[in-house]
Amino acid sequence: MKSKRKDYRGPSLKESQRITEKEVQHIARLARLRLEDSEALLYQKDFNAILGHFETLQELDTEKVEPMSHILETKNVWREDEPDKSKNTEALLSNAPDRKIDYFKVPKILEG
Amino acid sequence: MELCDRSAAELGQMLSKREVSSREITESVFRRIDEREKTIHAFITETREEALNQADLADSRFGKGNAISPINGIPIAIKDNLCTQNIKTTCASKILNNYIPTYDATVVKKVLEEGAVVIGKTNLDEFGMGSSTENSIIGPTRNPVDPERVPGGSSGGSAAAVAAGETILALGTDTGGSIRLPSSYCGIAGIKPTYGRVSRYGLIAYASSLDQIGALARTVEDCAILLNCICGHDRLDTTSSTVKRPDFRRCLKNGIKGIKIGLPREYFVEGLDFQVKDQIGKAVNLLKENGADIVNISLPHARYAISTYYLIATAEASSNLARFDGVKYGFRSNSDASDLLGMYEETRSDGFGKEVKRRIMLGTYVLSAGYYDAFYLKAQEARALIKKDFDTAFEEVDCMITPVSPCIPFKLGEKISDPLQMYLVDVYTVSLNLSGVPGMSVNCGKVDGLPVGMQIIGRPFDEETVLRVGYAYEHMAY
């Protein structure tokens, strides 16, 4: 069951139009993206227009509606855990931007 | 008429009678590509050598009298977000510009097993995100009807190739209208089947609860032929359905006498180009004169569809596209980032295009703490209401007819700098993905020399009625 605060009405139009450049930069970081300041400004403008349009949803009374995450009756599908031949390692690894022997290679994570 | 301008149904008959060879058909397609591709730019990768080998194999089968299917020997183009073993699959993105899949998507496997001739991989909006096929690393595809205009998107390469005779059949994908819109704009037929009808295994995911693979062709019958081949349960996609597939081709000629067609009034209001409206009206009248029962209906939550769709699609995209990190495959930024996080950020910033980044960030925002309830949860509730509208309406009617797009094909560059205007082009198509129901675009003439598509919407798993109405209309009108 969903948990929903009874008094919840969503942010007002004005509020959501105040997505700041700083917030845009924050979202970018969460999404592992890096933005120039000029890019962040452009995205800020787009997001305000788009989020403003999304606000129309706030008119809907959904108090008694169950959220739908999927069109199908979602249930887990199980299968037997049987060992199977793996794909050709070389073909898979040849797609890697960097490798060492049969491993993917990435920049150093741990110091020392 | 050149071979490449004929339908798969017709070519299939000619092949069976040995009046023509698959090699001749395939060469005809490649001749057309040589003539027009420079302008249209529908393909990212052409696979000429393999195609001619597959054609020769088909011909030897026909020679021995053991052809294997109605698409045996027929050229087909594949959207470049469907994995093809040993053939580069890019999603029109820099981040996958050198990705060579080690396996075939289930749909690709199926068309190959049935002996089709794969001629290449078609252009798209990066990862399927767009309505014009302008968001591509290789540049835009142009509409064969008028090269100044967009072919629609995101399966614009597949639709333009079919319309230009650069292929006979094509596979596309549809998350919010990406098969139906380009089919409408290029004046061909294209069907998005019911969610679950076709396995998505090997489709590079954009929004998993909405993505569906479907068929594009020049006739409704050809769509039915291709659909027959690609449907069915697949244990590699747990959302693929076990509902049995009927013979879609056999149902085509059942006629439309007594079929109840609903016109949802919310789809014919302000915002719809009046000439497009007239054109759809004429098509509906023709169906009525031929025995269909036309009823006015209502889908009261239609106006919330765009917001609902873009909230859910971007949320799912932000999660699906997290996998592109420059480690296992694809592009890695070659700057000398000293740590892993820096490498991720530089790779993703450099590797994704503008619109993809916009959607990843929007999705990240609507899923983030403090906004989840207001945006994402609200959209899931709206989705339930939109789905219920369809359920209720389908208690009364057998199918529905609407426009595919509120406007005629627009010019390149016209909407690219205003994302919201671009999103609004999808106003009549996204509800079907949200509700999982099948829909098809069938050409219903032209306005100012540009194609108009009529959308036929069916009950879940009732593509038969959709195809039947489309086929009947095609034969009344042309």
User: Any idea what the shape of chain B is?
Assistant: globular
Instruction: Let me know the number of strands of chain A.
Output: 2
CATH class of one domain in chain A: Mainly Alpha
Largest sheet of chain B: 11 strands, mixed
Q: Note the run of SSEs of chain B as H and E.
A: HHEHEHEHEHEEHEHEHHHHEHHEEH
Radius of gyration of chain A: 23 Å
List the strand order in the largest sheet of chain B. Answer: 1-3-2-4-6-5-10-11-9-7-8
Structural class of the secondary elements of chain A? mainly alpha
Largest interface, Cβ cutoff 8 Å:
A-B, 53 and 70 residues
What is the count of DSSP helices of chain B, taking H or I runs of 4+ residues? 15
The gross shape of chain A turns out to be flat
Helix content of chain B: 25-40%
Strand content of chain A: under 5%
Return the average pLDDT of chain A rounded to an integer.
83
> How are the strands ordered across the major sheet of chain A?
1-2
Q: Give the biggest beta sheet of chain A.
A: 2 strands, antiparallel
Strand content of chain B: 5-15%
Helices and strands in order:
The complex is a heterodimer of chains A (112) and B (478).
Chain A: H1 13-16, H2 21-30, H3 37-54, H4 89-93, E1 99-100, E2 103-104
Antiparallel strand pairs in A: 1-2
Helix pairs in contact in A: 2-3
Chain B: H1 8-16, H2 22-40, E1 43-46, H3 48-63, E2 75-79, H4 106-113, E3 117-122, H5 156-164, E4 169-174, H6 180-186, E5 189-192, E6 212-217, H7 220-230, E7 260-264, H8 274-289, E8 293-297, H9 305-320, H10 340-351, H11 354-367, H12 372-393, E9 399-403, H13 419-424, H14 430-435, E10 439-447, E11 450-458, H15 463-477
Parallel strand pairs in B: 2-3, 2-4, 7-8, 7-9
Antiparallel strand pairs in B: 1-3, 4-6, 5-6, 5-10, 9-11, 10-11
